[in-house]
Design brief:
This protein has about 325 residues and is α/β, with parallel strands linked by helices. The relative contact order is 0.09. About 35% of the residues lie in helices and about 20% in strands. The protein starts with a helix and ends in a 9-residue tail after the last strand. About 5% of the residues have low confidence. Helix 6 runs parallel beside helix 11. The radius of gyration is 27 Å and the shape is elongated.
């Protein structure tokens, strides 16, 4: 055996050893189930003798034919997202936490991620577009009125359900609670039309009511939005816009009588955390905005996602609200 041939053989041996070491180090994914059969809805364990390394995982197969199918089309049969968590991109998926959706295999970083994905998979693979949530801010806005709903919607679906942004009369900073400066992301002149409009309360509500430009924007935006949510005395803004006429509504306990005087065509309800009229939802004072937002999340994406988000926020329970029956088509 000449020197050149010996060098070639040695190189091949080293390469084989390196490949074998890599295969041994790569964790077995999908609990050892054959990925080709999993995609077809069958849970059949693969053989250690029939394996293939793809990416950072080792796959086992029940037959040589299935291994050949995997080799021919790994994009179809390997786990998606390069093995990252399907609900939280950037987080490594566990090789033992998986699910099959629409003929694709997905991994998850934790059990809560898997539950969230299985409840509404469309949120995480682009089948359901993210809804836009505009939160109105103004000088003197109540901090928790805006932060509570903002936190709920931003956390929903592990951040995949909503795009949340602030809107004000201009992009100039406004101050909340006398100490927190907020720089609005958009002005009313350039804000994207939202699916959900949140109108918080605060000591500056009067400035909204007395501004023809702001009221015109609120009316026009509400007419296109799927839902309008007021928190606390933000209900007075909806009343001024004519959005509470013929509906039920609530507000902060200290403002109930004032809203009754201001909104004579509205049945003002006290003692509930929120009132849901369908397109218009009003929340009681301050922290009640969290309850109303979780209620909306359950309405839009299901109770499972609302409970998961509440657990993430460590909200101990969701307060009771009033859901007004929607009239039949053609009715009042």
């Amino acid at each position: 055996m000449n020197r050149r041939y010996r060098s070639l053989v040695a190189g091949l041996v080293l390469a084989l050893l390196a490949w074998s070491a890599g295969a041994a180090e790569a964790p077995t994914v999908l609990s050892g189930f054959d990925p080709v059969l999993l995609v077809e809805g069958k849970e059949v364990k693969g053989s250690e003798e029939l394996s293939e390394v793809e990416g950072r995982f080792r796959y086992l197969f029940a037959t040589p034919e299935n291994r050949d199918r995997f080799r021919a089309d790994p994009e179809r049969f390997a786990v998606q997202n390069d093995g990252q968590c399907a609900a939280m991109p950037g987080v490594p998926g566990s090789p033992e936490l998986f699910t099959v959706h629409a003929g694709k295999l997905y991994l998850f970083g934790g059990e809560s991620c898997r539950r969230a994905f299985e409840a509404t998979p469309g949120l995480f693979i682009g089948e359901i577009p993210r809804r836009k949530v505009a939160i109105l801010v103004f000088e003197g806005v109540e901090l928790l009125d805006l932060a509570g709903p903002g936190e709920v919607f931003a956390a929903a679906g592990h951040g995949a359900a909503f795009e949340v942004y602030t809107v004000a009369a201009t992009r100039e900073p406004v101050v909340s609670q006398g100490f927190l400066e907020i720089k609005p992301r958009f002005a009313i002149a350039d804000a994207p039309p939202p699916d959900l409009l949140v109108v918080p309360g605060g000591v500056g509500v009067r400035s909204l009511v007395e501004s023809p430009e702001m009221m015109a924007w609120i009316r026009a935006t509400a007419a296109r939005a799927e839902v309008v949510l007021s928190v606390c005395n933000g209900a007075f803004v909806l009343a001024e816009a004519g959005l509470l006429d013929g509906l039920e509504a609530t507000t902060h306990g200290s403002s109930i009588e004032g809203l009754r005087r201001r909104a004579s065509r509205t049945r003002v309800v006290e003692g509930v955390r929120f009132v849901d009229n369908g397109r218009v939802v009003t929340a009681a004072g301050v922290s009640a905005g969290i309850d109303a937002s979780l209620h909306l999340l359950a309405r839009l994406f299901g109770e499972t996602e609302a409970q998961r988000t509440a657990r993430y926020l460590e909200v101990l329970g969701r307060g009771e609200g009033r859901v007004v029956p929607v009239p039949a088509a053609g009715g009042r």
